[in-house]
Design a protein that fits this description.
- The protein folds into five domains: about 25-335, TIM Barrel (Alpha-Beta Barrel); about 355-490 and about 625-670, no CATH class; about 495-525 and about 555-615, no CATH class; about 685-870, no CATH class; about 945-1034, no CATH class.
- The chain is about 40% helix and about 10% strand.
- Helix 2 (about 50-55) links the parallel strand 1 and strand 2.
- Helix 9 crosses helix 17 (about 495-505).
């Protein structure tokens, strides 16, 4: 046995090697920590997506005094041509990190987006153009290369210094090289060359389709196949390169082999029983101890190359340590650089000589204040001075100017834009016209957005007209340079339903059974008690979390874990193997799943494997609006790849790019802004110009619409639960709508504050603030806390905290950071004592804010969206035809489209059928006797292709109206089925012929050689001779 821990694992894959690696970086580091390793390299396949998790992983809580495992950043590069061999690249210094980011990016894109365009350097865009050896030579500075194949070793030798190139010998290579007895691979057979083609899982039978992002995303290549050790050793000896002991690690503990098999089956859409061993990692696969390393490499001939291991490195060993094992320490000793986390890297802003970002920001802010406030009041100046000083001290002046440039572009182009979220707490943002809510009027504290004690960086999220958001994105890439800009990826993870479904399929459970049970599961393990500050910008409620949609509809959420489910039947008992399984417990607690086959061995195995999949990464996706801008090349900071939908994205997600210091912005499309913009444009075309900034916020007619719950189509206030709340409260003003948007959230509902608010609003109960000192603070909410900002201001009022401290308290309570909560609780009670608050009253206030803060809603966001919601209600009230036409044209809404068409009819707005000459692609307004009518667009015709629709509109614009059916067929080349659909929905009624006639005429024109049928295709009535003759003539 070898006593000292004299090795470092240099080829370790976490679960960011998607559906191949098993464990998180934290779990791998914990294993390394427990077996006493001094360092560990994370080398995911073609990926640097896991480095932030790797660098932020905590120490095991039961061994805090043991030295931390030092992280080494690396990646394993595969050859897209399928050529044998992998190249492991390890970062030695800062230049090496930059080069590794570029190397990984080039592997995915075929070029470095931070330096080259898709066609530069003779390269065609795409991974197929990536030459592993040439790119490795190009980006070799600051890197170690570990080659596991003689081909790579020989091709790189002479082009990479010998002391930076090593031969990576895996244990499986020793097994093939005649140095040890052969051993089987994990889950495989000895004779792998005859492995049959595995059976595939029939996913087409599933009710829930596979995500498009998954289908288009490149799969992580299968684990590398080791060549015989003697070949690699001889190649290393021939060129004077050292050998290195590099086990190929894909999971932390030996038991992880089965989880690797399950992930591999999912990746290849295959059954576990049929997995060929070529798809699986080779033994040992887990992170070996030092003793295991000594045994694995005991017979490996030593080829030291230019590396020399000092004798004293082995003096404590009880048996000789193979040189290839000891050399891992020497390599690791030179890999000292990791990217710093927590910094801020802002892009440069073009300034005039003698100008600073701060001076420009001050100038623009005061100019905006003079426009916003007439006259300019002293409290505005004081607040501006305070905010600008804080922004300057924290170094965020360039960030505000960056966002302002984007907003000004949208303004110049007439693209509706509004800032949302906590940015509306800032008066500077309001003066720069980044936000629409006056923080002084709504009593919004700046500290909720930015303060010196805030650990994470704030960001300003902008909503744009959904239809024109791409124009903004194109401008951002042009303004800051494509080499400095990228979209942000998301890492989609296994949830409750997807984990069970994928595991069950891999275990051979029939797709029909999988579909039956998986659709009864919620998507996530628990229903969240809190939601992000930002609601989905789209009006499409289907994009919201399941619990939120249920809540808005007045439905009950699925029972939480451990609940009885409330059914009449008693919940079944789980077998011991599933007693703590979260998915099995969820099935148990769903009344509709009480007959789940808990005793079926196949289901038991599938459930156990599924539980270990929960929260593991499944595939990359595209963030709906996240954009990142770097002060230089984007690939100096992060690797990039291409999303399934086309854009170049960072491999780090939004939390990762913020951690390494890059500026993130959310530039989202908001369909409500599109509806408002379209309404105003339609009205302006009729000569009626409306400024929504100046409409009455207590308009009597709009008040009736709100009180009666007639808000179908109105942004954020059209769900059944919201319409019921509007009726209960008798909401009549913009401020009432703002409060309703916060009240409908699960937090106030669960805490009883919603019911208390309704009773007090209607005069059924006297307003009772938690303490007399809070009467004026909570007067507008009838003594009820509704917002996150209320938590801050209540803490400041009763405990004498400044608002920065109060925001720390809010964040600690919201994120349930126990250590911070304990410290701030003591500070809170001490402050209450200083302020003369009795102990019992202080405890009462503490309990209220502690229970409420974790699911309170951001007031600034409620104000922003409440103002938009009220304006949509105003437009629907005063211009229902125009509003509903714009709404239907935006392809949004909580309900099916037919509901809004019926709403238009109820309001007396005529609905006109599609017309090949009058309709556009979408819904539009036509004026009939001075009143608006809604014309259905051609795009609503089922089965009409986008190409045909484009041809119809184009030929109409170029050559005028379509005057007959033959002319339509000749000019559009539409398919017969498409024309039939258009006829049947009335699009040809303009030709003054009946639909049966037109269908008959179509048949004659398209199939003249066949005898026509005797009856009409529409209603079965025969055509008379005159009609037949008319068809032939025309």
């Amino acid at each position: 046995m070898c006593a000292p821990p004299l090795y470092v694992p240099l080829r370790v894959h976490g679960y960011h090697s998607l559906l191949t690696g098993v464990d998180s970086p934290a779990q791998l580091l914990e294993r390394a920590h427990r077996i006493g390793l001094p360092a560990m390299a994370l080398t995911d396949v073609d990926s640097l997506a896991g480095i932030v998790d790797f660098l932020q992983a905590p120490l095991p809580p039961d061994r805090p005094d043991q030295p931390a495992v030092r992280p080494i950043v690396g990646a394993e590069l595969s050859d897209p041509s399928g050529a044998p061999g992998r190249l492991v690249a390890l970062v030695r210094n800062e230049a090496g990190y930059r080069n590794l980011c570029r190397l990984v990016s080039a592997r995915h894109l075929g070029y470095d987006p931070g330096a080259e365009g898709p066609g530069e350097g003779g390269l065609a865009a795409g991974p197929a153009s990536f030459d592993l050896v040439e790119r490795a030579v190009q980006y070799q500075e600051g890197l170690f290369y570990l080659a596991d194949h003689p081909r790579l070793l020989l091709e790189l030798f002479g082009r990479v210094p010998a002391d930076r190139l090593l031969a990576a010998v895996a244990p499986a290579a020793l097994q093939r090289g005649g140095l040890r007895d052969p051993r089987t691979r994990v889950g495989g057979s000895r004779n792998t060359h005859l492995a049959p083609e595995p059976r595939r899982v029939a996913r087409v039978e599933l009710e829930t389709p596979v995500d498009d992002d998954l289908l288009d995303s490149p799969k992580t290549p299968a684990p590398a196949r080791a060549v015989p050790a003697l070949e690699l050793v001889e190649a290393a000896r021939a060129v004077g390169v050292a050998t290195l002991a590099v086990p190929d690690v894909y999971w932390a503990l030996p038991a992880g082999a089965e989880d690797h098999r399950v992930r591999t089956a999912i990746k290849h859409n295959a059954l576990l029983a049929d997995l060929p061993s070529e798809w699986l990692a080779e033994e040992p696969g887990h992170l070996p101890t030092f003793a295991e390393m000594c045994a694995l490499y005991a017979e490996l001939p030593d080829v030291p190359g230019p590396w020399v291991v000092e004798d004293d490195a082995r003096e404590d060993a009880q048996q000789p340590v193979p040189g290839a094992v000891s050399r891992t320490l020497l390599v690791a000793a030179e890999c000292r650089f990791v990217p710093a986390l927590g910094g801020v890297y802002l892009p440069d802003i073009e300034l005039q000589e003698g100008e600073t970002a701060y001076s420009r920001l001050c100038e623009h802010a005061f100019e905006g204040a003079r426009r916003r406030y007439r006259p300019l009041r002293p409290e505005v100046l004081r607040r501006l001075d305070y905010e600008l000083t804080t922004i300057h001290e924290l170094g965020f002046a360039p960030y505000f100017l960056l966002v302002e440039q984007i907003a000004r572009f949208a303004e110049r182009k007439g693209i509706p834009c509004v800032g949302r979220g906590s940015a509306a707490d800032s008066l500077v943002a309001y003066c720069l016209k980044l936000t629409d809510a006056d923080p002084l009027r709504y009593n919004l504290p700046f500290e909720r957005f930015l303060n010196p004690a805030r650990r994470d960086r704030p960001d300003i999220d902008l909503d744009f007209c959904w239809r024109r958001r791409d124009e903004v994105l194109e401008h951002v890439f042009e303004l800051f340079g494509a080499e400095c800009t990228a979209m942000i990826s998301t890492l989609n993870r296994f949830g409750l339903r997807s984990a069970f479904r994928e595991s069950a399929l891999a275990h051979g459970i029939p797709p029909a059974d999988v579909n039956r049970w998986s659709t009864r599961l919620p998507h996530f393990l628990t229903q969240p008690e809190e939601f992000a500050d930002e609601l989905p910008a789209s009006g499409d409620e289907s994009k919201k979390p399941r619990a939120e949609r249920n809540h808005a509809r007045g439905e009950k959420s699925l029972p939480s874990l451990g609940g009885g489910g409330g059914g009449a039947d008693r919940a079944p008992e789980l077998p011991p193997a599933l007693a703590t399984n979260p998915i099995a417990r969820t099935f148990r607690d769903i009344p509709e799943a009480r007959d789940f086959p808990f005793t079926d061995e196949r289901f038991i195995r599938a459930l156990r494997a599924a539980a270990r999949l929960l929260d593991a990464p499944r595939h990359f996706g595209l963030h709906p609006g996240g954009v990142v801008v770097a002060p230089g090349r984007i690939t100096d900071f992060t690797a990039c790849q291409r999303a399934a939908k086309g854009p170049v994205v960072t491999q780090l997600d939004k939390d990762g790019v913020e951690a390494i210091g890059l500026v993130k912005m959310d530039l989202l499309g908001n369909r409500a802004l599109t509806v408002l913009s379209d309404c105003l444009a339609m009205l302006a075309a009729r000569g009626e110009v409306i400024d929504l900034e100046t409409i009455a916020e207590d308009d009597a007619e709009t008040a009736a619409t709100l009180r009666e719950g007639r808000t179908l189509g109105c942004f954020q206030i059209e769900s059944p639960a919201m319409r019921n709340l509007l009726k209960q409260t008798g909401a009549s003003t913009m401020d009432d709508v703002i409060q309703a948007i916060a009240l409908i959230r699960p937090g106030p509902s669960r805490s009883g504050m919603k019911d208390a608010y309704v009773r007090r609003f209607r005069g059924l109960e006297e307003p009772r603030p938690p303490h007399p000192r809070l009467t004026d603070l909570l007067w507008d909410t009838h003594g009820v806390m509704l917002y996150q900002e209320d938590v801050m201001q209540v803490a400041a009022r009763v405990a004498g905290m400044d608002l920065a401290e109060a925001d720390q308290l809010r964040r600690a309570l919201q994120k349930r950071r126990g250590h911070d909560i304990d410290r701030l609780r003591v500070h809170f009670f001490e402050g209450c004592a200083r302020e003369g608050i009795e102990q019992g009253d202080a405890a009462h206030v503490w309990d209220l804010i502690a229970n409420f803060a974790s699911f309170a809603f951001c007031k600034a966001h409620a104000v922003t969206y409440g103002r938009i919601a009220y304006r949509t209600a105003w437009l629907k009230t005063h211009h229902p035809g125009i509003f509903l036409a714009a709404f239907l044209g935006s392809d949004t809404g909580y309900y099916p489209q037919r509901v809004y068409i019926e709403e238009a009819r109820r309001l007396g707005v005529p609905i006109l059928p599609p017309d090949v000459n009058a309709s556009g692609a979408s819904f539009s307004v036509e004026w009939r006797s001075g009143a608006p009518a809604i014309r259905v667009g051609l795009g609503q015709a089922k089965g009409l292709s986008a190409k045909t629709l484009e041809r119809i509109l184009a030929t109409r614009a170029a050559d005028g109206p379509l005057l007959s059916l033959p002319a339509f067929l000749e000019r559009t080349q539409a398919h017969t089925d498409e024309v039939e659909t258009l006829i049947q929905c009335g699009a040809f009624d303009t030709f003054d012929r009946t639909r049966p006639e037109l269908l008959w005429r179509l048949h004659l024109l398209r199939t003249p050689q066949k005898r026509p049928p005797k009856h009409s295709a529409v209603d079965g009535r025969p055509l008379d001779p005159a009609q037949l003759e008319a068809c032939r003539r025309n």
